[in-house]
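Weekly puzzle thread! Below is a chain. First person to post its structure in token form gets bragging rights.
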Amino acid sequence: MSIELVQTLYAKMPTAVEAARKQFGRGLTLAEKILVSHADNLATQVWDRGKAMLALRPDRVAMQDATAQMAMLQFIQAGKKKAAVPSTIHCDHLIRAEMGSSKDLLRACDENREVYNFLESAARKYGIGFWKPGAGIIHQVVLENYAFPGGLIIGTDSHTPNGGGLGMLAIGVGGADAGEVMAGLPWEVLHPKLIGVRLTGRLNGWASPKDVILYICGKLTVKGGTNKIVEYFGPGAETISATGKGTITNMGAELGATTSIFPFDQKMVDYLTITERQEIADLARANQSMLVADPEVYESPEKYFDEILEIDLSTLEPHVVGPHSPDLARPISSLEAEAKEKGYPVELKATLLGSCTNSSYEDISRAAHIAQQGLKAGLKAKTAFLVSPGSERIFHTMKRDGFLETFEELGATVLANACGPCIGQWKRADGVKGKSDSIVSTFNRNFPGRNDGIADTLSFLASPELVAAYALTGNLGFNPLQDTISTPDGKQLKLDPPQGDELPAQGFAKGEEGFIPPAENGEGLAVDLPPNSERLQLLQPFPKWDGKDFDKLPLLIKTKGKTTTDHISPAGPWLKFRGHLDKISDNMFLGANNAFSSEAGKGNNVLTGESDLTMAQIARDYKGKGIGSFVVGDENYGEGSSREHAAMSPRFLGVKAVLTKSFARIHETNLKKQGILPMTFADPANYDQIEQEDRVSVTGLSDLAPGKPVSVVIHKKDGKEITIQANHSMTEQQVKWFQSGSALNALNA
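Winning reply:
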């Protein structure tokens, strides 16, 4: 981590902030201070929340191995010699959880050798840092090494906002965004609105930072944060550890938020210091006024935030969310009755601890305290109990301080320092498709099929402390605040509230860090990409728009209900094809609910009359006949992961436009980047008018312009035509992307 980067930013922040204060005629929130300090051109930038497009200059780019493949392929296509900003690749997504850390890591290195060699060689050539498989989960490694107060980082993973725990704006993006920033271009984002969350009191007992964000998810829902930044403040914020703050900002992605952030405080100093960044901590302290909101913001927050939520941490009860959505929240005291009422299976089949959201030293130590109480009473885990450390640093510290031994004695399987089950990389031995059962994890997402590839699994999310307690009981209805556990000697164990240290008293232990620096001069180096690879494929430019309206396109799919990027482009076994656009496109819409089919991912070919086909089979047939297609979606279409394959595969297979009730931020941008026209119904009720055998035209495309609606004509089978209005959020630059066929085409024009 370059100290010069931090020094340069802090040196220019006062001038930028003062200029913005004068321009706005008021004080600034912390998020605003960071945004104005990273403006590409502060003098010409228009600031209008929810309307203006901001052109920003990020300090860093971070990529995980699944999305880095396509990001690097696009960067290579851009023809640049070296990344223009400090960038890193982190190998955490391709390691499948099955037999335990050592065996899983060895198998992953063998299975993914081709991909790892490509990423490592491309990183060395183009000036990008490379973190080897097993080094840790991207967000934990970024927090330990690269995050700093006041910074702006973009990452090709939706949980990049984890960095907000150290007071920076950390934002998830698609690979095309990352590639453009590495190519030297500014990064564009809709000027976010601001949600202020005022925290008072102090967490106590069983309540944890995870419960803060689970509670907020229940209040704001999965689309309540779309195109908004969540900024925390208040005396309660100062009582939460830096890693606890990271847990909260990490799961802000489940709100659809652009990102979340906490103001600089002593907890951040402590974390920076123990992770060997004392110099950055000192710089931040010297510039503290730039790293918190102005005093008048805290005095009258209602004047500065578009929405305000207040939480008294002292009264917060532990929460559990799920199944199937991270905003289905309730306090743990209500879960047992709800489970009986709704028929949730209360016997737990698995408990899972860790992930980028909850694998800090504080999380592990508090969970270990619960496990130790169980062991002392003669208990063992009653479920499969899986533990995912966040990084090499966390793993070796767990081992040194006895936590690893505690979990293993309880019956846990310790997995590699990787995402594993959190992203569907889990070979679950006891899972049966068609049979509902329950699991509880400390993860951040729980969409159907997200963890084990089985849509029937009921996945619940909770804090590390609660997950450890659930492991002891195997009972979803257990409430450790009031219930007891029967022990082998016939007694009843009432668990004491969890205890643990925020940071290790002896500092962090170290193993092999796993970092490979780039070559000093990579111009003479080659990228390792075999021409006949089954895993990787060089990209070809998408065709330019032909200048014509879209005329009578067949409807490929009308998705119904929740349509996440997991539904559009499932992960799990498909992760191995993330670098091969043709192969991975066969998974397109496999998890999506088609309004005209009883089976997810299936539909009819309206040209041939064939039924029960996958969407990829249908789209490939249309494409082969020179015909494009049209997609209709429901609310918050494309929520979840940042994976741009959910945009690239439809584009590759001939989808021309997507019309929805509303979009999630990252996915809408990804569609634009790839040359697909994303539109929203001017009247959401028009969604119901579209039927399976309709043809759809989009007219007036030659006059496509920012803020100007377009006409969509629905051609019925009986010859009737219905014309409706659709809106779009394209800027002038994004219109050029559409006309050029993609953002990358426009860059290379």
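Puzzle host: Confirmed. Bonus trivia for everyone else. The first strand starts at residue 53 and ends at 56.
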